[in-house]
Target: FAD-dependent monooxygenase
Amino acid sequence: MPDNQDFDFDVLIVGGGPVGMLLASELRISRAKPVVLERLPERTPHSKAFGLHARSMESLDRRGLLERFRDGAPSWNNGHFAGLDVWVDFSLLDSAQNYALLSEQTRTERLLEERAQEFGVEIRRGHEVTAVRQDADGVEAHVTGPEGSYTLRGRYLVGADGGRSLVRKAAGIAFPGTGGKVTARLADVVLADGEKAPMGMERTERGLLFCVPLDDTYHRVATFDFHQARETEGELTLEEFTDSLREIWGDDLGASRPRWLSWFTDSACQAEQYRAGRIFLAGDAAHTHFPVGGQGVNLGLQDVLNLGWKLAADINGWACEGLLDTYDRERQGPARKVLANTRAQIALMNPDPYVTPLRELFEDLMRKEEVNRHVAEMLSGVGVRYDLPGPGHRLLGDFARDLTVTTAQGAVTLPKLLRRGTFALLDLSGRPEISGVYQEWAEPIAWPGRVQHVVGVCEQEAELAGLLVRPDGYVAWAADKGAPPTEIAEGLRAALAAWAGTEGPGRPVFK
Model:
């Protein structure tokens, strides 16, 4: 393992939102040492994002966090696509978490910060990174804090600092995309008569109105102007907001006492690469899009679940060559698809009467179960599958199901096996090719606990001989009981070497 004496931390995380906080925990459970640098002195009480989708909840369950997120939080089985009258049915998902959970962004951030603190992560609020410089061996961040300026040095730096990311700009990473043509104005306000206010999304010839109650007093109200993009970068005022209400709805609804005013456009951009040397991007720093369908925070959380264990593998000295490059390779695709579906939703939401027949056609399609399931998988992230190398198998690259394995010592679930961020190797047939290869591979490994090896039977996958699951829950290798012994042994040996690594010289090259 490399010497730590020249580094203040293994990983400098710039940005203390949900993405940065989860990454910090992911690094700590794998014995790496991160620090979180957040420019805001306190957590913001305002939340653009409100929901967690199925893939995020599946992942949280595999870290033992799901119940604390579910505690006191309402859930619902339906969501919307482009404000169509036919709802997306999340109960159609092939997932134990086939619903959406109401967890405001500030709450999600708080719960993940508490998790990071439980692991002893150092979190520095009110510390703004003003410059970043990297060399062949590490990264330096210049920081301005309450007591003055200072410099930190780490092996790696991750920019989780939002759409206007200083880290991305400092790394020289291009951020191409489409400019904003639609302006959304958002306010948490008191309405003169909340009971008579329209609920949900309403489409008029002049734009869209969105309105939902937040509590007994306040409503979240948003207007969507498709005719003129907002040119100024100044703060939204109550007067401007009520003007937009009158323009789009014909009534300002008696909106008053704003506790939050914000605006954004439908601009959609994606970083050309998520890595530049020792600098990585995650969350909004890597991709921005119109916040429709509740996908943004979920996409960012999946970024760091993919990245965290790979960074820790390199820091701990056992990553194969090229492992860190798989982060960009695997996470670019899901972001491109989210940007595409949010652009499609904006097109369908356009108030132009010429779009109405297209909306009606989509509503007819959404009434078909297979179409509705496809959209549910798209919005929830359940449809994400990585193109991984290795012998083709129906499960390779997919997110592993919540399997239960009955062993000689009792039953164990896959989510429980993954709680400490290790690999899980399930030997479901007692095949000597599996246990033998594992023992052969594990014997020279100095760091214990990298792979949890479980022998047993699984009624949910009766034809499956074995399964190697990565720390992020995705299947790195699988074989069926009818496969030839040589094929099973060689496939498992290659997957263990490529993903779970070795130590010392002669590391395998990931291709």
